[in-house]
């Protein structure tokens, strides 16, 4: 078993606003993946994506939900070996929120550039460190 990839991000937003952004499909399209078609924060729910023409088609399932605190989902690709889990944990710090993302079992994926640990780390920096931060802190109606 490989060492999990763990990254933390801080937002100038209350935990309720961050939870809404990571569990609402309209918000998720803005910061996570625009191809997302359907999502519900319910254990067992299979994400639906419009990525039929993509080389790497996502097959994700919600694994854990603790309202306002934790969301976990599998991270796998159709036709490729490997299955990872992504866990978003939220921590309230006064009127701010710290988000810790943990991604496990990255070594279960094939040894291709698309599945490299550094690529996932870069991805979280962009998705959570830029996209989500911008959505939470720069927009008035988020």
UniProtKB/TrEMBL annotation:
SUPFAM superfamilies referenced in this protein's UniProt entry, alphabetically:
Bet v1-like
Against Pfam families, the record matches this protein to:
AHSA1
UniProt cross-references to CDD domains, sorted A to Z: SRPBCC_CalC_Aha1-like
Q: Which Gene3D superfamilies match?
A: 3.30.530.20
Q: Which residues form the Activator of Hsp90 ATPase homologue 1/2-like C-terminal domain?
A: 12-137
**Which InterPro entries does the record associate with it?**
ASHA1/2-like_C (IPR013538), START-like_dom_sf (IPR023393)
Q: Which family does it belong to?
A: Belongs to the AHA1 family.
Q: What is this protein called?
A: SRPBCC domain-containing protein
Q: What is the lineage of its organism?
A: Bacteria, Pseudomonadati, Bacteroidota, Sphingobacteriia, Sphingobacteriales
């Amino acid at each position: 078993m490989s060492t999990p990839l763990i990254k933390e991000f801080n937002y100038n937003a209350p935990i309720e606003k961050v939870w809404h952004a990571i569990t609402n499909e309209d918000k998720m399209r803005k910061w996570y993946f625009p191809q997302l078609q359907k999502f519900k924060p319910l254990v067992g729910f299979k994400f639906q994506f419009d990525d039929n023409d993509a080389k790497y088609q996502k097959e994700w399932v919600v694994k854990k939900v603790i309202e306002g605190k934790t969301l976990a989902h599998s991270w796998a690709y159709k036709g490729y070996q490997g299955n990872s889990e992504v866990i978003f944990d939220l921590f309230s710090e006064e009127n701010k929120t710290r988000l810790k993302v943990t991604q496990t079992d990255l070594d279960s994926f094939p040894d291709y550039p698309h599945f490299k640990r550094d690529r996932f780390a870069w991805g979280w920096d962009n998705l959570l460190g830029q996209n989500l931060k911008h959505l939470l802190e720069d927009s008035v109606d988020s």
